[in-house]
Each structure stands twice: as C-alpha cells, then as structure tokens.
C-alpha cells in the first residue's frame, strides 16, 4: 500500500495486536506520512476461567494478554502515535465465543477467527474509528484489496505470499467493510516483513508468532467449553448438552461408546476408543443420533458439499455456475471445482476430484486466480 491508496491526511486506525505483523503495518503507514491512531482490542479476560477444572490456575493465552498490550503500546510510543485499548468483550463473547461453543456442542468444527474479523475487527472497531474521524482500518493481515473501476466493486485478493495468505478468514467481509480496509502487508513476503521490522527498529521484530485460538488456553476445547458453560448455566440450559452415544461403522456395527460427539472431528484418527488392527478415522458425525461414524481413509473422500450463510463479496450471487478453486481449510490447497448459488444464501460446490475430510462447521472459500469470490459455512 502506498500513499496513493489512502490520502495521507486521512486518519487511519491501525489494529495493534502486539505482534510483528500489525506493528510492521503500522510502521509502514507511519513512514508514508499517514495520520495514525493505534487500537488494541480487549476481547477476552484471560483471568475469567482461571482455576476452573481443566483450566490453568493463572491467566494465559495470547488474546488480550498483558504482554501483548505492553508490546503494542511500546510500538505506538516508538512511532509517536496516539494509542488506546478499546474494550469489545461483550460483542466478542456474543458473536464469537457463544457461536463457537454452540457449534462445538453440535458436533461441528467452528472457525472463530472468521466471525471475529467480520463482527469485531471490521464492524465494531470500524464504528469506533468513525467516531474519532478515521475513515480506514489497517491490519496486519496478509491479503489485498483492489477497487475495480469498471464494476465499481471492491475486490479481496490473495496475498503475494501464498504461504501466509489469510483470505480464508476474511471471506465474510462486505463491500462497505472492504472499502475501509487496508492491508499493508499484502504485497510482501514474511521474510520481508521481518526485515522491515528490523529496519524500523520495532521492539517486536523477533517476536514469535502465535497460532492458537486466542481465547482458549492451550488446545483443549472440551475443557474450555465445560468451564465456560459452568459459568453460564442459563446458556448451558439453552444448548444441547453433550450426551453419550455410540461409535459405529457406516454399516451400523457398534464398536464402542463415547461421551459426546463434540469430542470428535471429521478426519480424526487418535482417541477413538477403538482397536481393530486397521487405522480408523472419523468420517461423519451424526449429532441427532449421537453417533460417531468411523471407517477407513477412503471414507473421508467426498466430491461435493453444500454451504450456508454464503457471502458473495461482489454483493450479488452469480447468475449461473462458476468454475472456481475452492479451499475447505486454511492449509488446504484450493482445488478445481464448480460452484453454484442456491436459494436462501446457500451454495453447492462440486470438486473435480474428491477431497479429504470435508468438515461441517468449517468454511469453503472460492477463488478465481487471485480474486476471492466469497465463501460460506459447510453444512
């Protein structure tokens, strides 16, 4: 991004997480002469569930940690820009944490980062930004935005560094949100970002990256969900409580018992409680029947999916079927497919070749070359 893509006199809010990517994005914009305001989002109180069964006794995790806030403040002070910690805990819990828990209990595999980008970073934070006269939001995402002069639409493009590309988590952005979004790192590779951080003498230049779900200490989702619902009994009463059931083959043979389908995900091999001498994988979850269906690796292959709550980034669904490349996980290599819009904000995607472990609750994101067409939640 250069000064041509945003008026240098226009105030820009830059989201500072305390990491090297957002810090470098801020330094780049500052070097170009833009008027910046740094925001760090307070999303989750890490002390909230400390000491619950299965939870650490002391605060931990990346989201909103004191270390990250301290690092973000140091970066802002070094750049000489105003800096604020903005509290969005209520919105984050309502639109990110609660859906995560509900999806998890329903036997689906949620992606909270996509909800956070759409509902918090580019909605709630954008609203606060407008209140202080800032027209743009800049983040450290590896992605690009382009305005198409012919169509008048804003386009979301894959990052130049395809290994770091984060458009899989940004497919829910609307035209209005994209019109305000700036992604300074979209044209860079990660090694270049690290080098720039050193050049700008940022205190976080060598800070390691974090890949965990920010509000879940460690990787034990079951313990987090149990601790969270123990604190919110009214919500727990509204959601379907995990119930024991059967581990079965596709033919219906019962192999074992389980404590709840929420403890499994499609493609899982370990922890099935079954010993047959041959590798078995979770190939399907049937929450209504309380069944975990297992089979051999070939059973994980599927050529078609349907998705709901689809967002077409251009604003309108295509009139007919499209040739696309479709990604079903963040690390999945987009595969050739045919996509077709369906009524009620749904779509059908049929791959040229069967794909492994298409998982309900995950997203499917559609691409044509470098352009992101949109995405939806796999049903």
Describe this structure as you would to a colleague.
There is one protein chain. The chain has 379 residues and is α/β, with parallel strands linked by helices. It has 3 domains: 3-199, HUPs (Rossmann fold, 3-Layer(aba) Sandwich); 242-295, Adenine nucleotide alpha hydrolases-like domains (SH3 type barrels, Roll); 301-378, Translation factors (Elongation Factor Tu (Ef-tu), domain 3). It is 25% helix and 28% strand. It contains 8 helices and 17 strands. It has helices at 20-31, 66-79, 89-105, 112-131, 175-180, 190-199, 221-231, 233-238, and strands at residues 11-15, 35-42, 83-87, 136-138, 143-147, 154-158, 181-182, 245-249, 254-258, 281-286, 291-295, 301-312, 322-327, 335-342, 346-356, 363-368, 371-378. Strands 12-15-14-13-16-17 form a 6-stranded antiparallel barrel. It has a 5-stranded parallel beta sheet with strand order 3-2-1-4-7, sandwiched between helices. A 4-stranded mixed beta sheet has the order 9-8-11-10, with no helix packed on it. Helix 1 links the parallel strand 1 (11-15) and strand 2 (35-42). Helix 1 (20-31) runs parallel beside helix 2 and helix 3 runs antiparallel to helix 4 (112-131). The longest helix is centred in the N-terminal third of the chain and has 20 residues, at 112-131. The mean pLDDT is 92.
């Amino acid at each position: 991004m250069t000064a041509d893509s945003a008026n240098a006199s226009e105030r820009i809010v830059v989201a500072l997480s305390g990491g090297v990517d957002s810090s470098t994005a801020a330094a780049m914009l500052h070097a170009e002469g833009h008027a910046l305001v740094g925001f760090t989002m307070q999303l989750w109180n890490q002390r909230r569930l400390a000491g619950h069964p299965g939870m650490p006794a002391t605060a931990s995790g990346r989201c909103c940690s004191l270390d990250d806030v301290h690092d973000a403040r140091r970066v802002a002070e070094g750049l000489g820009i105003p800096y604020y910690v903005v509290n969005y805990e209520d919105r984050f819990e309502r639109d990110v944490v609660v859906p995560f828990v509900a999806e998890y209990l329903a036997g689906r595999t949620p992606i909270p980062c996509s909800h956070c980008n759409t509902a918090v970073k580019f909605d709630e934070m954008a609203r606060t930004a407008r209140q202080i006269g800032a027209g743009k939001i800049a983040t450290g995402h590896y992605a690009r935005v382009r305005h198409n002069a012919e169509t008048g639409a804003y386009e979301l493009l894959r990052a130049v560094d395809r290994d770091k590309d984060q458009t899989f988590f940004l497919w829910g952005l609307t035209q209005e949100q994209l019109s305000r979004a700036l992604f300074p790192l979209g044209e860079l590779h990660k090694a270049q970002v690290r080098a720039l951080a050193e050049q700008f003498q940022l205190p976080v230049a060598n800070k390691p990256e974090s890949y965990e779900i920010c509000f879940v200490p460690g990787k034990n989702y079951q313990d987090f969900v149990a601790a969270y619902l123990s604190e919110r009994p009214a919500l727990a009463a509204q959601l379907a409580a995990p119930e024991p059931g059967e581990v079965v083959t596709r033919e219906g043979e019962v192999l074992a018992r389980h404590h709840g389908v929420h403890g499994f995900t499609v493609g899982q091999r370990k922890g099935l409680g079954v010993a047959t001498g041959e590798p078995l994988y979770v190939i399907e979850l049937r929450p209504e029947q309380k069944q975990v269906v297992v089979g051999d690796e070939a059973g994980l292959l599927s050529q078609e999916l349907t998705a709901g709550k689809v967002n077409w980034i251009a604003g309108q669904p295509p009139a007919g079927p499209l040739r696309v490349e479709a990604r079903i996980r963040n690390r999945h290599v987009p595969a050739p497919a045919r996509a077709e819009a369906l009524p009620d904000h749904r779509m059908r995607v049929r791959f040229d070749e069967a794909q492994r472990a298409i998982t309900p609750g995950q997203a499917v994101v559609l691409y044509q070359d470098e352009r992101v067409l949109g995405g939806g939640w796999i049903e």
